[in-house]
Amino acid sequence: MFAAKNRSTLRHFFAATNHLITAFAVVLSLSCSNPRECIAFSDTQLYTWFPYDTTHTYYFSGSNGQIDSMKLNENTATDAYTSGNHFNSEACSAGATMSTGEKPQYIYLNIYETKVNNEVQYADIEVNGLDYFGNCLSDTGYVYSNSHLAHTQYHESLQLNGREFTQVQEIIADTVRNGQTISHFWIAKNKGLVGFEENGNSTIFTLQP
Fold first, then answer.
1. Which domain of life is it from (predicted)?
2. Residue 120 · residue 43 · CB < 8 Å
3. How confident is the model at residue 87, as a pLDDT?
4. N- to C-terminal Cα distance for the chain?
5. Chain-centroid distance, C-alpha 79
6. Are the C-beta atoms of 185 and 193 separated by less than 8 Å?
7. Residue 198 to residue 86: CA distance in whole angstroms
8. Residue 152 β-bridge partners
9. What Rg do the C-alpha atoms of the chain give, in angstroms?
10. Are 193 and 187 in contact (CB under 8 A)?
């Protein structure tokens, strides 16, 4: 009687296990049944505003005579891939990163952009601790978001330390966070970061030719 009861329990166990395996296989087949070919990351505005080269060192001259430099160690973007081959991956996601790395000796810059189904979902730029979150980039720079850290102003032309730049967006801090050493910075189309002003002493640093 005891052996028969054990055999019955085992049959129920194996039957339940088989049901679970079958259900898992069905879910897996559904998640893999409609793979999508996702294109590589592409955004003309991003690369027009920030035409950076990781082999080049960019120099900035301060109104106090000091020289600072900046060099990117990353300028990457996602390649094309097939989506839908694993759970929760049916949307096409792509992204790009430009970065000097985590707080190098001089100027540090981090730029991130994320797309879902080829639509920009997130755009972020950080210079020396001043962070701005935008919706996307346009002909006049970052499009306004609900960023509580900074706001923007667009200039058709602007002089910084005697140098003139065109199509400039100024990003101005609304608050000062720990590690933030500047009060605002300027980016220019086809140039990238062209200047920034330090906290406290109003020293302006400008990109050199």
1. Bacteria
2. yes
3. 47
4. 93
5. 15
6. yes
7. 47
8. 171
9. 26
10. yes
Of 128, 113, 107, 137, the residue nearest 207 (C-alpha): 107
SS3 183: strand
Distance CA 168, CA 156 (A): 6
CA 6 from centre of chain: 59
Buried b (16+ CB within 10 A) or exposed e, 153-182: eebeebebeeeebebbbbbebeeeeeebeb
Residue 141 burial (10 A CB sphere; 0-12, 13-18, 19+): buried
Overall pTM surpassing 0.90 (yes/no): no
166-198 per-position pLDDT tens digit: 999 999 998 888 888 999 999 999 999 999 999
For residues 107 and 62, the answer to whether their CB atoms sit within 8 Å is no
Q: Are 55 and 104 a contacting pair, CB within 8 Å?
A: no
Q: What does the block give as tokens for 2?
A: 């005891």
CA gap 139, 126 in Å, rounded: 20
